[in-house]
Amino acid sequence: MSWLERRWYQSGQAPLFLRPLSALYSSLALRKKSRDLRSQWNAPVPLLVVGNISVGGTGKTPLTSYLVPVLKEQGYRPGIISRGYGGRSGVYPLDVSQAQGPQQTGDEPFMLHKRCQCPVVVGPDRVAAAQYLLQHYDCDLIISDDGLQHYRLGRDIEIAVVDGLRGLGNGCLLPAGPLRERPERLQTVDLVVCNGQMPTGLADLTGAFVMQLEPEALRSCSGEDVLPVAHFTGQSVHAVAGIGNPQRFFHALKQTLGMKVIPHPKPDHHQYQRDEFHLVPRLPIIMTEKDAVKVADFGLEDAWYLEVSARLPDNFKLQLLERLAAVKSDKGKSQHG
User: Fold this and answer.
1) d(C-alpha 153, C-alpha 143), whole Å
2) Domain segments of the chain: what residues?
3) Average of pLDDT values for 325-331?
4) Contact yes or no for 219/246 (Cβ under 8 A)
5) Coil, helix or strand at residue 211
6) Rounded-to-integer distance, Cα 42 and Cα 37, Å
7) What CATH number matches the domain at 3-9+24-211+312-330, 3.30.420.10, 3.90.79.10, 3.30.830.10, 3.40.50.300?
8) 157 has a pLDDT exceeding 70
9) Per-residue pLDDT averaged across 220-238, rounded?
10) What is the DSSP letter of 144?
């Protein structure tokens, strides 16, 4: 974690010399939001955005993985759109099913397509991605993985995800703090999901729920082998994580699964090279599912990823489905009106 990130999440005021830059950021962001809203595109089907108001990993992708099967059980045919951070493609929108691998699509969309078994389309222009999805697939609901601040994309339901441990940091906008939008923005979304615990200051927020990420299994990075999550309890392991908040992953391995962790944090969306895994001493390697999709072809021995599943209160699902039913009814009336 850089010096600046540490300052964001420490007690005390934000660095004085960065506050004018935060004011400039706020002005530019509000101007862009106003411009985007004037040209906003609204999908003919319900569109749900899963996003956050802070930079870094908060748990958006696990929540999206949770939502898809819940929606399928209710008879919806969901599709996912994503920016595709970390991917490099010469053509957008890009259908993940036609891509050559995560280096082209980005790690999170590739993982979501593999795990959720539903259409996934990536591109920096989320409106174009959504239109492509509707043109090529029989989807009656769109989930935007990230994109809360992509206001040109109309949305019917907004879910904001907050890191339960770090919360909103010092509550300041970039670069003095970690926020893309002011804390009051959480009052305007439909649902707030706090990853791991309810942060101080958000306990009274209406429509806030706690999401727990529960370990399910350890799966081989290069094969089909599966181990129980407690297989390496009490043992020393190398832990590799190229996610927004690697420390959360290392903490889970140590505190929840009882492993003795040698941490290897990497930048979010890190593009791995084979020689990065010549780790000493030779021990089992544990990584996230998001990292594992990028090293599947490396042929790593004794390398595993931790498969986790999100758990949320039943009331979260009930509120979400009620909102969706209302949106679906409204859109049906407008199309036949």
Assistant:
1) 12
2) 3-9+24-211+312-330, 214-310
3) 92
4) no
5) strand
6) 11
7) 3.40.50.300
8) yes
9) 96
10) E
